[in-house]
Amino acid sequence: MSSRNKRRAAAASALLLAGIALAGCAEDSTDGESQTAGGTSPGEGKAGCEQLTEFGDLSDREVNVYTSIIAPEDQAHKDSYKLFEECTGATVNYEGSKEFEAQLVVRVRSGNAPDIAYIPQPGLLKTLVEQTDKVVPAPDSVSANVDEFFGEDWKSYGTVADTFYAAPLGANVKSFVWYSPGMFEENGWTVPETWDDMMALSEDIAASGVKPWCAGIESGEATGWVVTDWLEDAVLRDAGPDVYDQWVNHEIAFDDPAIAEALDRVGSVLKDENMVNGGIGDVKSIATTPFQEGGLPIVEGDCAMHRQASFYAANWDPETTTVAEDGDVFAFYLPTTNEDFGKPVLGGGEFVAAFSDAPEVQAFQTYLSSDVWANEKAIATTAGGWVSSNKGLDINNLVSPIDQLSASTLQDPDAVFRFDGSDQMPGAVGAGSFWSEMTSWITGASTADSLANVESSWPTS
């Protein structure tokens, strides 16, 4: 998730947790049973409509969708709904808003909830479910699609108190290292396959007179979130997904020895003057460099590697920089440290929550959770910049090489996906002390002190 969405989601969760009394009651749930409008579906016999005909004739019905995805990214979403409208006769009304998270709370509170909302973090979904009675469990057709096309890890993030509510939608991969293929080829460097290989390569690059790494973590009120991603990736690799889950849920202390070990591993890169901050300055310059600019020295040859998510592709100037395996810049998977934990993948995404169980709403949920929609969305996204973890997505339908790499990473049978940890922690931590203490750590604070300060900030209830 972007830092902007992190702040908005944290604010929305805070409003709900403050005990806002929400008016109205949810429509009666059918506990998984599909609703039908009766009649013959317009999609009978049409390719791609097979799953939707069971909902009957939905002509003249409307589905209202509310999301944080705005122009220009919204057009591809709207275009991807055309097949659904042809199959069902229903109309999808799309509404994107920069104030989505805060306004969603207001609308639910006033009894004006949308039919569908794209929730950008599991924590906000959990809060909405627990603090309101408005979110409707997903129908069986959606559950079956998620079982078929997504891993168990993804389904768990759409589940609250053993009830499945929300299917995954889009996704992003954070476990990437950006580099210059040309620079690597010219110097005889090869993409590392293990963490040890990566550190050995870093030492070789440093010996050549080039700083191996560059980084920037400045992001306004959200300064520090970049380091939280580094740490989360390291915890997944060193301690494994089970310990990661315990840490995120505060079942072990934030400053548990396993977490301290992982942060020290991150420090072997980010706090070593020999490793950073190529083309920018010393270690402390990381804290004052905007995260959008952190990797840019790669194209100037001033640094060799930059750890950042797939969405960093948007920061390269498309007129002067080609993002491709044989282009000016590309990315490789951040290597693991322990083969026992498979292929850990840190990332984010959205989830489809419903506030109505009307047949047209259930039909749209079913469509969005299918392989059909994933491929329609890929084809509609002609400029790239979107990917899904849906295993039915044909990677060849993605136009961007980095999107293709992201999809192949998510679809890897060995992939063990975990959602961004700070997005799941209480707002006071995940969007507060975790960010600030990682900034302090970069500028000189010790691992022990920084982690202990976050631990002491964890809400007691």
UniProtKB/TrEMBL annotation:
SUPFAM superfamilies in the cross-refs: Periplasmic binding protein-like II (SSF53850)
Extent of the signal sequence: 1-23
InterPro entries: Bact_solute-bd_prot1
Statement: the UniProt record of this protein carries the keyword Protein biosynthesis: no
Residue segments, region Disordered: 28-47
Keywords (A to Z) from UniProt: Signal, Transport
Coiled-coil residue spans: none
Family: Belongs to the bacterial solute-binding protein 1 family.
Protein name: Alpha-glucoside transport system substrate-binding protein
